[in-house]
Backbone:
């Protein structure tokens, strides 16, 4: 189908890339979030751990302070309650140190401090136990007591110092861990936001492209459908014939055209079917080789009768959409054939008629020649014997007999003239025209010169002006001019002053017209056409001599040149003869 | 040397024969004329056969030929004469009624020596024939073949 050239774009690679990128970003965000969440858990665990260390340190410190103060109080008061309290406070101290050692196992500096702390605490605890359980000075030795108190206070200060350093360490760790957790959180937030925005943008762009793509596709498909409908519509209107497409299985792919119905076929009956399913077996047998030829690349054209009508069938190869097909175009030529037959028949008839006419014409020419030829002999004989009679027996004849002999001689001379003219006329109709450029002006001058002997004792005024050149047979055209001028001279004989005018006249497009006008006796216009017939005369021969062939000869010659002749006259008003010849050398033969 | 002035006239029409002889007699040439009535007779005469087997030797000084004759027409006689080495030197004059160009052209193609159309008027006919006879029989020097015997 011709619609295959509509661009059907493949799903754009850009769309695929867009969606894939968005997906990749989302996956990356997921992975990052997961890792971030893991990090957060770790961070909070470590923060919690630091808090645990801190609270353990606080508890340790509280116990140390408690034990120290109660120990000191017991030293002063000897109150057993206080001694109890001091023992109770001192009791968990070793446990707490062990706990701290465990908690800060990952921190060598804290371990070191713990070692220091442990020895200080042990030392302090020994001092407290000593002060409680040792022999009591009675009364208490103030000096010793004061010295013991001094030692105890120093040890407690050292413990406080180590604990303080440990607190500071843990607080610093806490601050550091909190900051790390926050930074990680911030990063995750950024990555997630940026990733989401990028993914959203990519999805947006890809969706837009996809939308546009599908819009294009829809548009193209609609265009394709529209074109297909158009082609179908055009083909279905294919006049007086059909267009068929078939594939390599000889299965019709398409069948359209007004001519289908006329021969009892239908689109539905052909499309989708093989020739053997759709057509009569004898038709299949006739067309199959041509179909195969077309598929092989060889077109065929033939004429075939089908369903009572004649068809011209053109089968040609066709490659459409990369597929090898065959196309059949049929045209109903019944009418044309009929017309051609008619033309042929008419031509044959015409040819026959021409042959008949030519043959008749030839017979006529032969007859006319033969008659003229054979008529001359008896005329000559009559002339000859009359003459011999006159020479030898004139003296023996009376006046009347001599006059009769003269009449016989004159009559036979006239007969001789008639025969000569007839021969000349007959000759006009034969032979090829020898065309050349002819000056009518020169022909006229020569013709007037030739007429001189007849002008003896007469007064004739010649008016010759503006005669054109024409294309024609010079010898024949000379006869035309000569005959017309001779006529003019003859029929102006009664005029004291004859005026004969020859010149150009207006004619139809592409014609050269010449007239010959005289002021002679003229004639009645009702007989104008008779003038150009053979032996047609409008005057008695005792008025004007002649054989009545001159104008017939003129007309015949002019007709042979493809021209025409006519005359205009009135009785005693002179006559004008017109000769029209095709101009520009376009004369017919 | 009487043979030198012999004229052969081939003419089928008796009136024409009479008129031609009449015209020739005015030049006192009539006695020298041999008249044959068709082309076959003309050839018999020229080849000395048939009824002319016994005639004297020697060719006529001129042959006057009519075109239209029974049996063998004038053009055929002309053709035969001009193709024959022994006869081709004889002057042949067509004396005919035909003004047809075809006849004229064909005659000259075959080698005719003159072509004369018989005038319709008797005076002119007489004049033409007389001049012909005088020219060919008297004025014109006949070809050597006309005298078969040596001088």
Residues:
């Amino acid at each position: 189908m011709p619609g295959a050239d509509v661009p059907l774009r493949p799903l754009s690679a850009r769309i695929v890339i867009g969606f894939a990128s968005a997906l990749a970003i989302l996956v990356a965000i997921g992975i990052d979030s997961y890792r971030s969440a893991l990090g957060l858990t770790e961070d909070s665990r470590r923060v919690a751990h630091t808090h645990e260390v801190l609270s353990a340190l606080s508890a340790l410190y509280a116990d140390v302070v408690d034990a120290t103060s109660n120990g000191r109080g017991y030293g002063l008061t000897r109150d057993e309650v206080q001694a109890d309290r001091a023992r109770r406070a001192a009791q968990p101290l070793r446990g707490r140190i062990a706990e701290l050692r465990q908690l800060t196992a990952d921190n060598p500096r804290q371990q070191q401090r713990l070692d220091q702390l442990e020895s200080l605490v042990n030392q302090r605890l020994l001092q407290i136990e000593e002060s409680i359980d040792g022999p009591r000075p009675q009364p208490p030795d103030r000096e010793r007591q004061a010295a013991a108190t001094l030692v105890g206070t120093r040890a407690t200060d050292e413990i406080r110092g180590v604990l303080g350093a440990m607190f500071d360490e843990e607080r610093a760790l806490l601050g550091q861990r909190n900051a790390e957790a926050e930074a990680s959180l911030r990063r995750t937030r950024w990555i997630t936001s940026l990733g989401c925005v990028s993914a959203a943008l990519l999805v947006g762009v890809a969706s837009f492209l996809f939308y546009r793509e599908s819009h294009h596709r829809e548009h193209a498909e609609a265009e394709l459908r529209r074109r297909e409908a158009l082609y179908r519509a055009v083909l279905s209107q294919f006049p007086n014939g059909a267009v068929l497409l078939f594939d390599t299985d000889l299965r019709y792919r398409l069948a359209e055209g007004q001519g289908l119905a006329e021969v009892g076929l239908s689109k539905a009956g052909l499309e989708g079917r093989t020739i053997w399913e759709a057509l009569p077996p004898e038709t299949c047998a006739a067309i199959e080789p041509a179909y195969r030829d077309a598929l092989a690349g060889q077109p065929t054209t033939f004429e075939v009768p089908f369903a009572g009508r004649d068809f011209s069938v053109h089968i040609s190869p066709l490659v459409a959409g990369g597929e090898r097909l065959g196309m059949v175009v049929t045209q109903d030529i019944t009418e044309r054939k009929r017309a051609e037959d008619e033309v042929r028949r008419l031509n044959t008839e015409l040819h026959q008629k021409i042959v008949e006419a030519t043959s008749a014409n030839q017979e006529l020419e032969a007859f006319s020649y033969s008659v003229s030829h054979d008529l001359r002999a008896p005329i000559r004989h009559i002339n000859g014997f009359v003459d011999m009679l006159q020479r030898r027996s004139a003296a023996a004849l009376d006046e009347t007999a001599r006059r009769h002999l003269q009449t016989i001689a004159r009559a036979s001379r006239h007969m001789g003239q008639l025969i000569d003219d007839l021969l000349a006329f007959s000759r006009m109709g034969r032979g090829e025209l020898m065309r050349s450029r002819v000056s009518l002006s020169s022909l006229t001058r020569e013709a007037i010169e030739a007429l001189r002997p007849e002008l003896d004792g007469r007064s004739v005024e010649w008016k010759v002006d503006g005669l054109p050149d024409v294309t024609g047979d010079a010898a024949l055209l000379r006869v035309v001019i000569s005959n017309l001028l001779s006529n003019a001279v003859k029929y102006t004989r009664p005029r004291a002053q004859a005026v004969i005018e020859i010149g150009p006249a207006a004619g139809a497009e592409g014609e050269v017209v010449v007239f010959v006008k005289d002021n002679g006796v003229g004639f009645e216009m009702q007989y104008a056409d008779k003038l150009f017939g053979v032996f047609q005369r409008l005057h008695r021969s005792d008025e004007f001599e002649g054989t009545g062939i001159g104008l017939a000869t003129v007309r015949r010659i002019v007709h042979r040149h493809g021209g025409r002749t006519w005359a205009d006259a009135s009785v005693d008003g002179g006559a004008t003869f017109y000769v029209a010849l095709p101009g520009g050398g376009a004369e017919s033969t | 040397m009487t043979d030198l002035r012999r004229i052969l006239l081939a003419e089928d029409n008796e009136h024409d024969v009479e008129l031609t002889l009449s015209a020739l007699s005015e030049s006192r040439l009539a006695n020298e004329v041999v008249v044959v009535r068709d082309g076959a007779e003309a050839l018999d005469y020229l080849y000395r056969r048939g009824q002319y087997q016994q005639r004297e030797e020697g060719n006529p000084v001129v042959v006057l030929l009519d075109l239209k004759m029974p049996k063998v027409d004038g053009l055929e006689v002309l053709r035969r004469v001009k193709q024959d080495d022994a006869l081709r030197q004889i002057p042949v004059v067509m004396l005919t009624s035909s003004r047809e160009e075809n006849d004229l052209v064909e005659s000259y193609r075959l080698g005719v020596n003159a072509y004369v159309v018989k005038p319709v008027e008797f005076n002119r006919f007489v004049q033409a024939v007389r001049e012909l006879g005088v020219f060919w029989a008297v004025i014109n020097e006949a070809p050597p073949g006309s005298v078969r015997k040596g001088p």
Notes: Residues 1-8, 585-589 of chain A have pLDDT under 50 and may be disordered. The two ends of chain A are 57 Å apart (CA to CA). Chain A touches chain B at residues 369, 373-374, 376-377, 379-381, 383-388, 413, 416, 419-420, 423 (CB under 8 Å). The longest strand of chain A covers residues 309-320.
